[in-house]
UniProtKB/TrEMBL annotation:
The keyword tRNA processing does not apply. The lineage of its organism: Bacteria, Pseudomonadati, Bacteroidota, Flavobacteriia, Flavobacteriales. This is DUF541 domain-containing protein. One of its GO terms (biological process) is DNA damage response. The keyword Ribosomal protein does not apply. It comes from Flavobacterium gillisiae. Residues 1-18 form the signal peptide.
Length: 230
């Protein structure tokens, strides 16, 4: 009997608690914000590649060409913090048809160019002094954090505008936000490949010319927001 009374008491308390819970009218929407900016700097990844039959000679030639490349970089008064050796390799390559081993040496330097007006001069200097492979060029903004903040604010405004559009026909109003989820992807600048490889292979180019067309980069923020309806 006591057990039955306890069970009935718990059921009564549960029902009473459930009656006190009120459904809160709400709406969930997604918002997107985009900021387009002209990049003001670039990261250049450039490689010296040499081949030959004697490992020692191949490595020596590679070192000499990279030394000349570094002199070009220093001549342009770039900060030492803005360039670094990224990769160094010396690998044997076996030719099964000729049954002969050759060697391939590479050194890659990564350069952060903060002044795009130096771009053409730097690229031609690199190619003329031994760079024979431009792996990629990534255009970016030095004010990325600022533009990401702007994009997030635009995304929130977009979400609220969508919510207001939906409820405007119902005679209701959008109230406070209950939940906010940031769905933004990590910003990854897109590299430029083909145009720079073409320039690198054009060894006959001797006159100064303008080859840079950096265009715009887009910084995007995405949010999901749940608003209370009033």
């Amino acid at each position: 009997m006591k057990k039955a009374l306890v069970v009935l008491s718990m059921m009564f308390m549960t029902m009473s608690y459930a009656q006190e819970i009120k459904q809160v009218p709400q709406i969930s929407v997604a918002g997107e914000g985009k900021v387009k900016v002209v990049p003001d700097q670039a990261t250049i990844s450039a490689t010296v590649e040499t081949k030959g039959n004697v490992a020692k000679d191949v490595k020596k030639q590679n070192d000499q060409q990279m030394e000349a490349v570094l002199k070009v970089i220093k001549k342009m008064n770039l900060s030492p913090a803005d360039y670094r050796t990224q990769r160094v390799s010396l690998n044997p390559v076996y030719d099964y048809e000729k049954k002969k081993t050759s060697y391939n040496a590479t050194q890659t330097v990564e350069i952060l160019l903060r002044d795009l007006s130096q771009y053409d001069e730097l690229m031609e200097g690199l190619v003329n002094q031994g760079i024979n492979r431009i792996d990629n060029v990534i255009f970016q903004s030095s004010k990325l954090a600022q533009y990401q903040s702007e994009a997030r604010k635009l995304a929130m405004k977009d979400a609220k505008l969508k919510a207001e559009d939906y409820v405007s026909v119902l005679g209701q109003k959008v109230g406070k936000a209950m939940t906010i989820s940031d769905n933004s992807q990590i910003y990854q600048p897109q590299p430029v490949y083909a145009r720079m490889k073409t320039m690198a292979m054009d060894e006959s180019a001797t006159t100064t010319r303008e080859t840079l067309a950096e265009g715009e980069i887009t910084i995007t923020a995405n949010v999901s927001v749940s608003f209370i309806l009033e």
